[in-house]
Design goal:
The model has no long low-confidence stretch (mean pLDDT 95). The strands form two sheets. This protein has a six-stranded mixed sheet, with no helix packed on it. Strands 1-3-8-7 form a four-stranded antiparallel sheet. A hairpin with a 6-residue loop joins strand 4 (34-39) and strand 5 (46-51). It is built from one helix and ten strands. Helix content is 4%, strand content 47%. The N and C termini lie far apart (38 Å).
Amino acid sequence: QVQLVESGGGLVQAGGSLRLSCAASETIFYLKAMAWYRQAPGKPRELVAGITSSGSTNYADSVRGRFTISRDSAKNTVYLQMNSLKPEDTAVYYCNRPQFPIDWGQGTQVTVSS
């Protein structure tokens, strides 16, 4: 049973932008903090950005000022707007609940060319 569906990745040149989306069922999304993670080849998965049910946000130092996380409760969807992309942002991006994680989705590939 697929519960988290990430989309919006692609190939972009350095300096470009992408907007990722993560759709979840209401039972997963409702009143829960959500977060975006990423995993580059040969590296562990890392937290990129998080957002609480009330909208408070936090970011990894490496993306602060370039990425923006947001959520739409009506659509049970969390977004990640990524600007000024760098080659080191290349990774598979996933979403999940940081406090009550569930099975990971397939993620969405982001590739930034130099």
